[in-house]
Amino acid sequence: MPLVVQPLAFDDIPKYNSLFHDAFFDTPIGSIVHRAPPSAASREAQIKKTAKQFHNPHTRFWKAVDADTGEIAAAAKWSFYTEDRAQAEVDEDTQVPAPGPESNEEGHMAFFGHIAQSQREFLGTKKHALLHVLMTHPRHRKRGAGSILLREGLAEADRLGLESYVAASEDGLPLYAKHGFEAVKAVTFDLAKYGSVEGTSTNTIMIRPARAKEGVESTVEAFVSSKTISEPMS
């Protein structure tokens, strides 16, 4: 059953959002940002939000499709900014989204506060490629779907001469490192603090230097230390 990479179609958005839930809800981070599965109303609101993002000229969605069944096995969302950005645009894009009715508010604010703060810290107003989401349905893991989607986005980043940025889960970190991403910051979350499962989960900010154009310097700084940084306060 080969996988084929295609642009996500607008009509795929409900399937894309269902895939997002299936891929992330039962993960460690999912356990701290959600306290219950999304309701039908929450799913509809998320579909509308994704539809708006779909028409953003900087944003691209791809899917990996099972060639035999037509099922979407994995999907990715990227943004490509080829010019420096206005600070007002950055401020708007890095606002922490409001918690939904089924959210664990404390965990939601901690995790998405880290995401927003890190984007302001490492990206700011400069041009870049941002990998927002790379997700694989549990039934299709271990088939290389994430790798082929990642290569698709990185090829576009290289064509545009952009460095690439991702906030990597523990499971995703080896894949990103294999494709040239370098760790610049890590934040470890105490899962029990948010009333969920025991243990911890680390999210790592990673940057891959631009490769397409000679003389384009990466702004990657050395990873401060091998120790993780405590949870941010925002």
From TrEMBL:
Q: Where is the N-acetyltransferase domain?
A: 59-211
Question: Which keywords annotate this record?
Answer: Acyltransferase, Transferase
List, alphabetically, the InterPro entries matched. Answer: Acyl_CoA_acyltransferase (IPR016181), GNAT_dom (IPR000182), Trichothecene_AcTrans (IPR052523)
Q: Which residues cross the membrane?
A: none
Keyword hit for Transferase: yes
Alphabetical list of SUPFAM superfamilies matching this protein: Acyl-CoA N-acyltransferases (Nat) (SSF55729)
In terms of Pfam families, this protein maps to: Acetyltransf_1
| Name of protein | Acyl-CoA N-acyltransferase
